[in-house]
Amino acid sequence: MREPIYVDHAATSPLHPVVAQEMLAFMTTTYGNPSSIHSFGRKSRHALDQAREVIAASIGAKESEIIFTSGGTEADNLAIIGMAFANKEKGSHIITSAIEHHAVLHTCNYLEQQGFEVTYLPVGEDGVVKLDDVRQALRNDTILVTIMLGNNEVGAIQPIEEIAVLLEGHQAYLHTDAVQAFGALPVSVNHLKVDALSVSGHKINGPKGTGFLYVKEGTKLVSVTYGGEQERKRRAGTENVPGIIGLMHAVTLSQQEMNEKQSNYSGYKQILIDTFMSNDIDFAVNGDLNKSLPHIINIHFPGINVESFLVNLDLAGIAASSGSACTAGSIDPSHVLCAMYGSESDRGKTSIRFSFGLGNTKEQIQKVAEETVKIVKRLTRR
């Protein structure tokens, strides 16, 4: 039987076996509510405190600066809406980019309906925001800049440290969606100089429905959920202790394995490119490989129909995608590629994203490359 090959890790990643094993006890025996004062609750609270300590250390933060969430979307929503409403007396202007994940874009759309003004910065063909555009967009009433650290479709790495320097002395807070970048790149809130940073568990071989938001001490933020006083009154609701334990172990493993993965994934990208070139098929890499996340490569194949391409890949036992998984199976043109190359370009409809992760091997990627060549030749045959 043919081995299925999964190269869509940017959409979601498989749960690491170690993570699954560590979570089990907190689903069966250590099940107390961490807000309860009895021994069952205290055991859960101790585990929660340990997880917060480990996760805070992974980004150079204080334990009190970590808020556990249900994932990257909630973290983005809490950061953007929470900071916008907490600081609206200072202004109503927000800056973001045209290539953000929909968790950011749709949140900004919502804030526009609430009377806030949002500037959506363009990007170049490398998928990177220009510092001059940020500088020109800044106003006295700008209260928040939210730019992702690494793009989920093309992997473009944004100049967050440089944007932070630009904001020195300005009232605007800086938030970054680090969902794709965390675990793929070293992430230090002290180096990035951000006020808020979002992470999701299921992108780093942790459980779905888990994540965290870093909020720098002293940052004004209002809660967007109402209920109990969990997470220092910043996020109501009983904490998902088994999920958070899983998240802690996934974070630890991601830090330990980062360098090896970076080297492996660089090699995987080269296997794809070399195979495509040696078979003389028409292709182009979207964005700049030298400014991209190690595990993501997005490739334009002129003349192909992306839906047919994905179906053919699936029939060959290969799981890839045309972009973000959060468009619910949509094959609409990628908003990221449209921002990079223009709405008239066909790249938004003729590009495939391959993303690597746990379980992938050189042999698998070679197979992906060879099957892709066959499909391209078949679909572009005249």
From TrEMBL:
Domain Aminotransferase class V: from-to ranges: 5-368
Signal sequence extent: none
Cofactor dependency: pyridoxal 5'-phosphate
Catalytic activity: (sulfur carrier)-H + L-cysteine = (sulfur carrier)-SH + L-alanine
Enzyme Commission code(s) on record: 2.8.1.7
GO molecular function: cysteine desulfurase activity; iron-sulfur cluster binding; metal ion binding
Pfam family, one: Aminotran_5
Entry's family note: Belongs to the class-V pyridoxal-phosphate-dependent aminotransferase family. NifS/IscS subfamily.
Name under which the protein is recorded: cysteine desulfurase
Species whose genome carries this gene: Bacillus mesophilus
